[in-house]
Amino acid sequence: MRPRIALNLKSVEYEFLEEDFGSKSPLLLQSNPVYKKMPVLIHQDKPICESLIIVQYVDEVWASGPSLLPSDPYDQALARFWAAYIDDKWFPSVRGIALPQGEAAKAELMVHVFEGLALLEDAFDKCSQAFFGGDKIGNVDIALGSFLLDEAKAPKLVGWAERFCSYDAVKEVMPETDKLVELLKCFKPDLNNLLVDRT
Length: 199
Prior knowledge:
Elements: H1 2-9, H2 26-31, E1 40-43, E2 46-49, H3 51-61, H4 73-97, H5 103-127, H6 139-144, H7 155-166, H8 168-171, H9 177-187
Antiparallel strand pairs: 1-2
Helix pairs in contact: 1-3, 4-5
């Protein structure tokens, strides 16, 4: 979803090939032989793998469109820091909740998830704008944009998420919230604590 949002923001036309859940096509295995997972962007017959790397690539290759990073080098560093935090620290805790384990381990992960939400809420509050990227969607918004948030735990981020999901470049790639919530509930009832129904 992240690469598609970046491509849409840059007004780049592309062909989207959907993979069947649970299977790996020969094209995917050939394009990403190391991780063997999506997403992969194939540009000029060359594969680019990993969603945030693809977003950065899109931003650099199609530089004529709106930049996904701030112009100030310090602000760029902050944006890269928070995007890396979401991918490397916060998301693994969210994903870990769905893995089979004892109740104590799940409770510890929930603490990490909510502590991370508090950090992200504070970082967003310091932006004092509509998005992490200012008045338009940027790198951090794209990194965090695919997660559903609990309004009680992160009220400012829920407002941000509503603005993010209503952006034209995001609307066409974002799954319907109701369907996504129901799918996630089927996979793991413990995720219900993280989900909010925004109907």
